[in-house]
Structures are given as C-alpha cells and as structure tokens.
UniProtKB/TrEMBL annotation:
It comes from Desulforapulum autotrophicum (strain ATCC 43914 / DSM 3382 / VKM B-1955 / HRM2) (Desulfobacterium autotrophicum). Residues 562-640 form the AMP-binding enzyme C-terminal domain. This is Acetate--CoA ligase. Keywords: Acetylation, ATP-binding, Ligase, Nucleotide-binding. One of its GO terms (biological process) is acetyl-CoA biosynthetic process from acetate. PANTHER family: ACETYL-COENZYME A SYNTHETASE, ACETYL-COENZYME A SYNTHETASE 1. It is an enzyme of class 6 (ligase).
Length: 677
C-alpha cells in the first residue's frame, strides 16, 4: 500500500460533503398500496435468520426442482445459492405469466423519433419472438448451454429479446454498452471467448440515425488479432425489411436476423433446466487495472434477488408501468429493466433515445403517454433535466407513485427538485446504492417502511448487513466518520467470480478484510465494495465515492488505468495520469495530464489527437474534460506520479505540502496552466 496511499486521488477524496438532511415521509396513499409495509417482514431478514431469509425471494420464482441447500459455502468465497435447484430465467420472465396475462404489455418500446409509434409488446408476443430467436441461436448459430455470446446493441426491444433467448437456451450473454467502442467490444469478445457477436444495423441518438454495424466489423477484426475468431455476426435491423443505413455484410459471416428468422417462425424452444448456480450472464466493469472484469452472475440467486428487490424496494406490482431510463448495457438495465420487472409481470419501458432530446419535455411526454407510474433514473439525468427544464414536469399530466435514483451520490438540492417537480410531491423516492458486482440493491430505504433522507442512500436493504472498516480492519462505529464500506454477509444477487480469474476476484473484493483465507464460514469473508461511506446515528449510509482508481462518470464506472493505457497508445505520449474532476451534470469527469516524449511540441492538435484516441479505444463516455500537456508530472522521489496533487489542481483545491516531491517547481507551472493562478 505505502506509496500508493500517498499518490492516489480517489473520488472519495474530492467528495462533495453536504449536511445531514431531515426526513421526508411517503404518503399514506403510497403506504396503503406498498408491497412491504410490515416491519416484522423486514426483521425476518436479520443476520440471525441468515441465509434462510432469502428463500422468501426464491419463492417468488417458479422452479423445476426446489433447492436442497440455501447457501453452499464449501468453495468460499465463491458462494452457491439455492444449490440443487433447477430453474430457467426466460421461463420465469415470460412463460409463467401467459396463463393469466398473455395480453398484457411486457415491453413498451419507445423509438427516439416522436413521429414513430410506440411498440407495445405483449407477453404473448414476447414469448413468440424469444422462442423464434432462441431457435435461430440454437439451430442457425449453433449455440448451446454454457456458450458465451457477446451482444453489442442499442436500447431496443430486440436487446431484451436477445437476452431472454440466450437465457432460454442457457447461453451466457455478455452485453456490451452500445456506446462502447469496437476496441472495448473486442476486449470482451476475447475475454469471454465468444464466437458469435450480435449487433444491430443502426439506432437513433439525438436525431441522427447512427450506423452501428461498422462497430461490429471493427470489433471482429480486433478480436481476431487478440486470438478470438468470431464466425457469425447476427445483425438485427432497426427497420426490418429495409436496410436503415448502409450496412455492408461479409458473406458467410454476417446475417440479417430479421431475414433468417423467417425460417424459425412458429418454432418453440423448451427452456433449459439450469442449475441455480449456472451463470446467466457476464457484465464487464472497470477496475483498478486496465483490464475490465467480467462479473459472472448466477441464474437462480440473481433472479431471486432482482425479483425480491424489484418487489420490495421498487415496489413493482404487476399492474404498474415502470420506466427505468438506464441503458440495458449496464447492470441497472439488466436487473431493473429486463429481469426484475419482467419476473414480476410488470410492463417495462425501453426508450431508445436520450432523455433531453429533442427538448426538456420529452421524458415527461413519454410518462404521460404511457401512464408511467414508477420512474427510475440517475442523478446525472436529473441534473440535466433540471438544468434545461426546471418547470417542465408540471406541464404534463403524469403521476409517479415511486421514483428511484441510482449510480452516484445525489446532492440534496437536486433530490429536492426531483421530489418536488418530477415527483410532484407525491412520489416515494429510493436512493439505491449498489454495483455491477452486486446484481441488485445493497443500501436503500424500503419505501413503505423507512422515511427518505436526501443525500443518504439509507440502511442495508432486507438481508444486507453493511459494516464500515478503517484501514486497519477495525469497525468504524462513530457516526459521520468515513471508512470503507463492506457487506458482512453474502446475498443471492452477488456475482460468483470474475470470469476466468478467481484469484483477482478474491484479491479485489475479499483479501483486504478476510479474517481467515482458509475459512469456509461466510462470517470470515466481508465483501469490500470499494466505496468510502459514513453511517449516521439512524443507521443510514451516505456514499462518498470510490476509494480506488475508478471514476464514476454520469453513473458509469471508468478505470483511470483504462484511460491512461488508451492515451499511451499515442506515439508522442510518454506518461499519462487521469484524475476525477467534479462536474455539475455528470458528477465526475476525467482530466488527463500528459507528459510528452522529448522532442515533441505541445499543440492543440496533439491534445485533440490524444482525446480522440481515448474515444476511439473506449468510447465517447471516457472523453477527458481537458487534456493538459504538461512539461513533467509531479513525482515522488521514488518516481511515482502524484495524482493527488493533480487532482487537487483540477478541482481547484489546496495542493498541500509538495516540498517533499522530486520536482515541486513543476506543480507551480501546472497550477498556473490549469487555474490561471
Ligand atoms: O461508487 C458507487 C457508485 O457507483 C459505483 C458502482 O458503479 P456500477 O458498477 O457502474 O453500477 C452502477 C449502478 C448500480 C459504486 O461503487 N454508486 C452507485 N449507486 C450509488 C453510488 N454512489 C452513491 N449513491 C448511489 N446511490
């Protein structure tokens, strides 16, 4: 640790600190209809009742064969939930609803252009489309149980259909966020050893029909250089029957799904009976090294956890119209657009476009038209909507009973606008803290039981028992003192391992506070989340930000090392350092400091080239706020880059004592360059 502790600039170090706020209480109308209002049910999730408490969630699902062991700890810390049980996720999200609800809308697909009609897909239609695509995947693409497939698609109903078709066959899907670059997609193809890539020809973003298939072509090429051959690219069409963009196809490798599907019309596929612990999907996320981690999620435990938390925290009832604005390419979309709401037979909205396009009223028109009553979004979207249309929600006739915020800390002022204007003072709000690794919520209020407190996520959700440790492994018991938030116990939604890298899984999440590496007792394996947090006297947790080299941009995780590695690909670059900077809409954005190799001149054009290289290799989401071409990096005497100093400069904070550095004079130069002072 030594040197690392000195040099790192983490999100937590530049966290916005706000005052403790007062409580807000849900309306009696909300409580009257809420799924969980009985504190005794909450109490059943105490540690005394662990792990059996979680069978309440598993019982919300249909099993082919019940489990015989609730939690198997024999391979600690790779926990196995509901061992012995047989289940299928596609069956639970579709087939079991048909008897009573086949004519109900499962998915409302809202295209970005308002001139296009919304596609209301019933559970029966979803059943038909998922079966036909599953038949194609099995019989045309040759995929079978246990195979991995990479899916690089935009926000369309076909993305959900693809995931559910994979789940039906027991094929492990690895969905890559549609905005990610071909390089990022290729890395995931190689790591998961996918020989099939599923893509789409085009999609709308802010009024432009973007050609998406070209990304697949590049990704396949790059993956091949990385040692993984993709032999089939399946391309959905945004407008079936006519090519919506120029989409060159490689003969024998690329196939339009909509054309091939004709051979499978009317086909039905018996869902595979999966073991509860069989993987359902991989979801890659950034970590402290350049290589993204493939979080492996189980079938039975994951589905039980997202169904249970959708019911108790999101308060989803089958008759609700639920809209989560996240992208399905992130974990929020997997758990709380697709698997959770559909497992509960709700109607889930999938919106193709950006919430603020073409104007500040777009989101509220969607809510009005579809009569959405549960709304789920991230602080970054709330800030953007508040900025461009603070009075806009009142102009539309919709009523949310419940709203969620997720992905980053929300400032109390922003929370209050969300509550007053978007929720019209009527909605119960939950601030949900969790991560890609977790499958579902960790801290939040149960909306029918606990009051809301702006800026605080809340206590552990039922069955989740957080604890804050200091650097030495002692519990931090004093209110308001920051430490590393951990979870004391396993839970069914927790990822099983990092795909193909168990050592990294143990090292990253458990090694720091493990009490005995040989132990098979879950009590010895607290889960390290990687966030700093404080606990208040009322047991509510406030999340301060990441303690590692990860930046949360608009609620999305980016590894600083990933961005630095992308910059180092540019020939002129000698050294690169990324630090998080506070941003009024996105929460945090990366600032990039570059030292050039000798003989190269610092020019605007070169800074632009480096910025473009990052967008090309990772995606636009990683675009630095600014590329600073500096004469040298501030360094310790042992040669380590002092990111802490750069972080302080970027955030206009005091750099502290720099006299012990090897080159304190460079700090003065950089400071003047960045702050003008
Ligand atoms: O730092 C925390 C922040 O987002 C990280 C997880 O990012 P990701 O895996 O991309 O998942 C995002 C959606 C679940 C966390 O380590 N974070 C997430 N939710 C909150 C949050 N920070 C504060 N408050 C939240 N509600």
């Amino acid at each position: 640790m030594g040197d690392k502790k000195v040099e790192e600039t983490t999100e937590a170090q530049i966290a916005v600190h706000w005052q403790e706020e007062g409580y807000y209480y849900p309306s009696t109308k909300f409580i009257g209809q809420a799924n969980l209002t009985d504190p005794a049910v909450y109490d059943r999730f105490s540690l005394d009742n662990f792990p059996d408490c979680f069978t309440e969630y598993a019982k919300m699902l249909d099993w082919y064969k019940p489990w015989n062991t609730v939690l198997d700890t024999s391979d600690a810390p790779c926990w196995k939930w509901f061992k012995g049980g047989l289940i299928n996720a596609s069956y639970n999200c579709i087939d079991r609803h048909l008897e009573k609800n086949k004519n109900k809308t499962a998915i409302h697909f809202v295209p970005e252009p308002e001139s296009e009609r919304v596609d209301h897909i019933t559970y029966q239609e979803l059943y038909v489309r998922v079966n036909e695509f599953a038949a194609l995947l099995r019989d045309f693409a040759g995929l079978k149980r246990g195979d991995r497939v990479t899916v690089h698609m935009p926000m369309t109903a076909e993305l959900a259909i693809t995931m559910l078709a994979c789940a039906r066959l027991g094929v492990i899907h690895s969905v890559v966020f549609g905005g990610f670059s071909p390089n990022a997609c290729a890395d995931r193809i190689v790591d998961s050893q996918s020989r099939v890539l599923i893509s789409m020809d085009a999609y709308y973003r802010s009024g432009t029909l973007l050609n998406h298939k070209i990304n697949a072509d590049d990704a396949v090429k790059i993956a091949k250089n990385g040692g993984q051959v993709v032999d089939k690219v399946l391309v959905w069409q945004r407008y079936p029957g006519k090519s919506s963009t120029e989409t060159p196809m490689v003969a024998g490798r690329d196939f339009f799904v909509n054309e091939e599907l004709k051979n499978y019309y009317g086909k039905r596929i018996e869902p595979e009976k999966m073991l509860a612990e069989d993987p359902l999907f991989l979801m890659y996320t950034s970590g402290t090294t350049g290589k993204p981690k493939g979080c492996q999620h189980s079938t039975g435990g994951y589905l039980a956890y997202v169904a249970g938390t959708s019911k108790y925290i999101q308060d989803i009832h089958p008759e609700d119209v639920y809209w989560c604005m996240a992208d399905i390419g992130w974990i929020t979309g997997h758990s709380y657009i697709v698997y959770g709401p559909l497992a509960l037979c709700a109607s889930s909205v999938i919106y193709e476009g950006v919430p603020t396009y073409p104007d500040a009223g777009r989101s509220w028109r969607i809510a009005q038209e579809l009569d959405v009553n549960i709304f789920h979004t991230a602080p970054t979207a709330i800030r953007a909507l508040r900025k461009i249309g603070p009075d806009e929600p009142a102009k539309y006739n919709y009523h949310f009973k419940h709203m969620t915020t997720v992905g980053e800390p929300i400032e109390p002022e922003v929370w209050k606008w969300y509550q007053r204007e978007v929720g019209k003072g009527e909605a119960a709000i939950v601030d949900t803290w969790w991560q890609t690794e977790n499958g579902g919520f960790l801290c939040s209020t149960v909306p029918g039981i606990k009051p809301m407190k702006p800026g605080s996520a809340g206590p552990g959700v039922p069955g989740i028992h957080p604890i804050i440790y200091d650097e030495n492994g002692h519990e931090v018991t004093k209110a308001g003192i920051a430490g590393n938030i951990c979870i004391q116990n396993p839970w069914p939604g927790q990822f099983q391992t990092i795909w193909g890298d168990r050592d990294r899984f143990v090292e990253t999440y458990f090694a720091r506070y493990c009490k005995d590496p040989k132990s098979k007792d879950w009590r010895d394996w607290p889960y390290l989340a990687g966030d700093a947090a404080t606990k208040s006297d009322d047991g509510y947790y406030r999340i301060l930000g990441r303690i590692d080299d990860v930046i949360n941009v608009s609620g999305h995780r980016l590894g600083t090392k990933e961005i630095e590695s992308a910059a180092l690909v540019v020939n002129e670059v000698a050294e690169a350092a990324v630090v998080p900077v506070a941003h009024d809409i996105k929460g945090k954005v990366p600032d990039l400091y570059i030292a050039l190799k000798p003989g190269y001149e610092a020019t605007e054009a070169l800074a632009q080239k480096i910025s473009d290289a990052i967008c090309e290799q990772i995606g636009k989401i990683a675009k630095p706020r600014k590329v600073w071409l500096v004469p040298d990096m501030p360094k310790t005497r042992s040669g380590k880059i002092m990111r802490r100093v750069l972080g302080a400069i970027s955030n206009n904070k005091d750099v502290g004592d720099v006299m012990t550095l090897a080159n304190p004079e460079v700090v003065v130069i950089i400071k003047e360059m960045v702050t003008g002072k």
